[in-house]
Amino acid sequence: MSLILLDTRGRILGIPTIYKGSLNTCVIRIGKLFRPAIEQQAAAIIVATNHPSSDPKPATEDVAVTRQIIQASRILDIPVMDHIVIDTGRYVSLKERGLPFGDRTAYLSQQVWSTVTMLFSGYLPPARTVSGLSIILA
Fold it and tell me: Is residue 26 a part of any domain in this protein?
């Protein structure tokens, strides 16, 4: 599990890896997840996890953890812009799947998209456009 830390203009502050799970599980502590965002004074974050199982479909656990992360983000005032589940050649945006991420939206700049693509090279399809992850930071 990685975070993409964003500043108030949607620029990337850093991309720390928070957890490395096994083939089918990753146990996380929400407090540990937000530590880098707090330390770097991130204005928002994007959560990214990979599914080495060849299926990027979010598991029930992914949705449950995302809901917990969103709850914590409201308390900490660090919005979660999206949770992206990645697999070889494909990904799924939980925001696109309808999970409520709150009122604050942000535009995912080309720089962020390029970095996401480089970070997960081999996982993201090159044909995917920025509009699929469009967000505007308020």
Answer: yes
The 3-class SS string of the chain reads CEEEEECCCCCEEECCECCCCCCCCCCCCHHHHHHHHHHCCCCEEEEEEECCCCCCCCCHHHHHHHHHHHHHHHHHCCCEEEEEEEECCEEEECCCCCCCCCCCCCCCCHHHHHHHHHHCCCCCCCCCCHHHHCCCCC
Looking at the domain assignment, is residue 138 inside a domain?
A: no
Does 57 reside within a domain?
A: yes
Mean predicted confidence (pLDDT) in 52-78: 83
Task: Write the CATH number for 81.
Answer: 3.40.140.10
Domain count of the fold of the chain: 1
Angle CA 138–42–52, to nearest 5: 105
Q: By residue range, what is the domain housing residue 100? A: 2-133
Q: What is the pLDDT of residue 5?
A: 92
Tell me the whole-structure pTM to 2 decimals.
Answer: 0.73
- The larger pLDDT score, comparing residue 61 to residue 136, is at 61
